[in-house]
């Protein structure tokens, strides 16, 4: 579905095109345009081959692979499991913590290690901060896609504050290498708890501000309501996940439905699209799901900060990490984009025999042609933006 | 003075009349370039450029110099003649429209009887230039931008022209100098408040003139392709639209025309509805020189409004754009024309 598809030479206009008075389909000249890989609104090096009839889209063919870095092969050639984590960081560079956590979780399940409770809470706090930062990018760039430049910068001001918290903790601002197998690279610095609490109180009104400025803006609603509608069954058939799936009204969140870490000890609600301004599963629903998830993440962070126990941040590990021969595990976690799964097979040596990553952005992208046929060119930009792809993870 | 002027050959007279708007456009472009960046920055919680001169005031000049010195790239597959001519056609259309703008009671480039008519006609030349640029670029995105632009500008000329009709009905003239003189003598004489008519008529006219002024302003934004109507150069969809392939001086020409157009639509709205060069305080601070001041200040206020709107709102879609023009603005204007006609007759 994703690979290059050659067009039939006698490509005819799809049903619904212009018809003459005698009912004959008029052949209007179609145009094939390339959107990307160097295009401002493909959010990276994605190439979309678009077949348009005037401004109406007849077909979209995504071409991917411009950012392929052989993550899986690299992971199999490391000298130990720990070395894979920086590579996992670089998959979805907008939410590195959740990636490294997913891989660390896979290794821990293979080794059957229990990590200290303090580690679990810190990981939850970090992952939720990361989720907010990632959603801020998604929401901000979505504003740019719709033509509103200002919300983007407001989002980045807030994201900057989260990055400062990360920098304070582990020194890095984008790719952290913070979650290690069996623990963390550093304990929380002093004052982290207070500053994160401050951020939470600061950020709540900011969500409302972005909502007022962008989400409930009349023009923005007009542009996104009833556009790119992803029905429930299509979403399930294409294995969509994350806000893409929840936007279609399906209440499915791995943090609740396949709980890992301490999510089951915290109170929060998965957010779903309800079709408030248009059909269920349109672009606006996916956008509002992200906005509301940020609030939920704040709830989680505040509870986790309150419950944060004292203790060690590194579990007792064997000197060399060697899972049993033929041990295999599939771990799935909820990243800001959806279900990120790692399937890891061990052959008893210090490096994994096989690593397979199931990336949410890659899977979500596959539904793009399905929901953008018949839309207008300007809508395609918004639909692609609402999928919230990160090409680093699509191509891996 | 008058005798000396009359003794000059006609060609020299024409040039002497034509130069001031050109100088004005260039100076104004520098100011508005700076203003746009600073206003946008403060809307977005930033400070914009601060290094070149005090608070970066010299930055527009540096930008201009950079654009002038840049290599003039002409892609090999373009239609060379049209590609070269297009920016100048666009600028010429805008610049020619400045001829009928009354900057003050003492200065107007060409005191035409059909000033407004000329303005509407000549500014349509801009569409031709943009279509030329889009077509000649041999770039599909540029072509899409050009076609969108043509459709949009032609559609929005209808509401603009109808709004002008309303003003012409009240003032009884198509000469912009006459229109302004009609409104002279204080803020309450402005057409937007019903013009210098008997109080009863003014009050009856007020709702119609306010609506018409608002529509003229909206249509003006659409005609200069600014957000929320900036589809021809929607950077998230069409990269840069019709001027994607341009660089250096030709690109600067498009920018100059765009900013000049920004002033033009504001100036037209100000002249027709807000008393042009006339002082809002009647006799106080009035006269030919104060006239220039008031004219520029009023127009710049609306330029500022357009910048403000641009950095706040998202963009509309093509069909929504057409919907607003044909199904919202135009019917309302017909209602206004009927209403104004009715009030003027009784």
Describe this structure in words.
The complex is a heterodimer of chains A (396) and B (346). Chain A is of the alpha+beta class and 396 residues long. Chain A has 2 domains: 4-60, no CATH class; 71-395, Cytochrome-c3 Hydrogenase, chain B (Orthogonal Bundle). Helix content of chain A is 44%, strand content 13%. Chain A has 15 helices and 8 strands. In chain A, helix 6 (192-215) runs antiparallel to helix 11. Chain A is globular. The two termini of chain A are 18 Å apart. Residues 1-13 of chain A have low confidence and may be disordered. Chain B has 346 residues and is mainly α. Chain B has 13 helices and 2 strands. Chain B has helices at 2-7, 10-43, 59-69, 80-97, 115-123, 125-136, 140-171, 176-183, 199-223, 235-238, 248-273, 288-310, 318-345; strands at 102-104, 107-108. Chain B has a two-stranded antiparallel ribbon with strand order 1-2. Chain B is globular, with a radius of gyration of 21 Å. The N and C termini of chain B lie far apart (46 Å). The A-B interface holds A 31, 33, 39-41, 55, 143-150, 153-154, 157, 213-214, 217, 219-220, 222-223, 376-379, 381 and B 40, 43-46, 140-141, 144, 227-228, 230-231, 234-237, 239, 311-320.
CATH topology of the largest domain in chain A: Cytochrome-c3 Hydrogenase, chain B
Query: What kind of assembly state do the chains in view correspond to?
Result: heterodimer
Shape of chain A: globular
Number of strands of chain A: 8
- Rg of chain A, nearest Å: 22 Å
Please give the order of strands in the largest beta sheet of chain A: 1-2-3
Question: Helical region count of chain A?
Answer: 15
Provide the helix percentage of chain B.
55-70%
First and last CA, distance of chain A: 18 Å
Strand content of chain A: 5-15%
In the predicted model, the low-confidence regions of chain A spanning at least 5 consecutive residues are 1-13
Cα Rg of chain B: 21 Å
Proportion of residues in β-strands of chain B: under 5%
User: What is the overall shape of chain B?
Assistant: globular
By secondary-structure content and strand pairing, the structural class of chain A works out as alpha+beta
Contiguous low-pLDDT stretches of chain B (5 residues minimum) are: none
